[in-house]
Write a structure and sequence with these properties.
The complex is a heterodimer of chains A (245) and B (246). Chain A is mainly β. Chain A is built from four helices and 15 strands. In chain B, strand 8 and strand 9 form a beta hairpin. Classes of the chains: A mainly beta (245), B mainly beta (246).
């Protein structure tokens, strides 16, 4: 292949069969269970990178099921998001995220800077309970439960939650191991259509794991639970801070 | 966390619990089955990026068992390597690799530029046969076999094969989707301690898959099979060509 064609074709590895497709990345019927909990302020001070700041010591533990996403397929995930601010603008910093499919893991990491690792998440209805679980290898590391569709939540509330900006810390090393990219990235979901949103009683437990340190942000008190089903587009991001500049 | 600490700690994502640790990456009892086959020259010319040059219309199909590797753990890999020439030296262009373990996939892609995807390879002894299989999801996409340790191969020959450089095309997009890194990377294995090398009758079959297009380099004739066991270190790489340089 001629060098000029390499540059024209280059999007992701491998050159001739990229691990992830070019966007736009549209999600249909994506289902979330989000359990918000209070954690230790000192742990958050350590986890949240400047120039992001936070008001309350809160974490959102999310379990999600993606039924259909263009290019990425059908997969499930779990994550810890931290409500933060950038120059006063409220949003969420994505601290940990685990998925069970590699196209969105590699695309998430390399395009936006999602801190994706491979683990098996599941979000399912078990009789009266919405259950979210996360397993790293053979070990259960998180479990969330919620009463199934107990009380409706205003669509505007859910749309507001999905519509706020998200922040990522994108790090890619150079071939010599030194940081090549170290940037704070912001993305904002678009074309949000809320199919339904509910709240109800909820519970959450996290378990320690050397390579999936969810418990570094310990659960001190469960604050609230939200169950959302929505369609949206995941647009590309923009760099809002370059740590290497 | 202070911005200065972010800069100092930054190695890989996530910052506080990187997907892979910094090296050195040492492999103990690494076992290879490499089936060399003849393919279609036009198919190779289409996928080998210049300034690398195709030598002969030949592909090395590899299965690699890695039971003990620092930072990466216990995993198996399978894929296609194309013998190429770069300036005055010969080496192998890594065209496609499939692994069953997240840290070496993420680390391989982001540090060196290995074209790695998640799939499920295996390399094992089944009675008289050394057997390699590769499954993408539930679909079998490659199967290879060799007679088990039929003939010893001189260690100089095996060491020469392991000592050749590898070449990779590292591509990382910017957040806007445009290419941010597009580089030809060269790496070498180091501190090689060869434990054994054998040849024997060999066979290979590749199956079409939309996302794992191994059969785009079709098997026209199997030329040889080699089975190697060695301890070795995977060194970091160096950029030998920058496609984005103006």
């Amino acid at each position: 292949m001629e060098p000029a064609d390499v540059v024209k074709t280059a999007f992701a590895m491998p050159l001739t069969s990229p691990s992830f497709a070019r966007g736009p990345y549209s999600y249909t019927n994506r289902e979330y269970m989000v359990v918000t909990y209070r954690t230790s302020r000192a742990a958050l001070e350590e986890a949240v990178p400047e120039p992001l700041t936070f008001d309350e010591p809160l974490v959102r533990c999310e379990f999600m099921r993606t039924e259909s996403s263009t290019g990425f397929g059908r997969y499930s995930g779990a994550a810890q998001h931290i409500p933060v601010r950038l120059n006063g603008q409220a949003g969420a910093y994505i601290h940990n995220m685990y998925l069970d499919a590699y196209a969105p893991i590699s695309g998430g990491r390399e395009l936006w800077g999602f801190p994706h690792k491979f683990a098996k998440a599941r979000l399912a209805v078990e009789r009266d309970t919405l259950v979210g679980t996360l397993e790293y290898g053979p070990f259960r590391i998180a479990k969330g439960t919620m009463g199934f569709k107990h009380r409706m939540l205003a669509q505007a509330t859910a749309a507001g939650m999905l519509g706020e900006p998200n922040f990522l810390l994108k790090i890619i090393p150079h071939v010599d191991g030194k940081p090549r990219i170290c940037e704070l990235v912001r993305y904002i979901r678009s074309n949000i259509v809320v199919r339904g949103a509910w709240t109800g009683p909820c519970a959450l437990e996290l378990h320690p794991h050397a390579l999936a340190p969810l418990t570094d942000l310990p659960v001190l008190e469960v604050v609230s639970g939200v169950h959302v089903i929505a369609d949206f587009t995941l647009p590309l991001g923009e760099v809002v801070h370059d740590y290497l500049a | 966390m202070k911005a200065d600490t972010v800069r100092k700690k930054a190695f890989s994502m996530p910052l506080h619990s990187p997907s892979y640790p910094p090296g050195p990456y040492r492999f103990i009892e690494r076992e290879f089955m490499i089936i060399t086959y003849r393919t279609n020259r036009a198919a190779l010319e289409k996928v080998v990026p210049k300034p690398l040059e195709v030598i002969d219309p030949v592909v090395k199909y590899e299965f690699i068992r890695m039971p003990d590797s620092t930072g990466f753990g216990d995993y198996t890999e399978s894929g296609q390597v194309i013998p190429v020439r770069f300036a005055e030296e010969t080496g192998g262009y890594v065209h496609a690799m499939f692994l069953d373990d997240d840290p070496p996939i993420a680390g391989g892609r982001e540090l060196w530029g290995f074209p790695k995807k998640l799939a499920f390879p295996s390399l094992r002894v089944e009675h008289d046969t050394l057997l390699g299989t590769l499954d993408y999801g539930p679909a079998r996409i490659a199967a290879a076999s060799m007679g088990y340790k039929h003939e010893a191969v001189p260690s100089e020959m095996a060491l020469r094969a392991l000592g050749e450089p590898g070449f990779l095309l590292k591509i990382i997009p910017h957040v806007d989707g445009s290419p941010r890194i597009c580089e030809l990377v060269r790496y070498r294995l180091g501190n090689i301690d060869l434990k054994g090398a054998w040849s024997g009758p060999a066979a290979l079959e590749l199956f079409p898959h939309a996302l794992a297009p191994l059969s785009d380099l079709p098997v026209l004739e199997v030329l040889s099979g080699i089975h190697l066991i060695a301890d070795l270190t995977l060194n970091l790489g160096e950029v030998v060509h920058d496609y984005l340089a103006k």
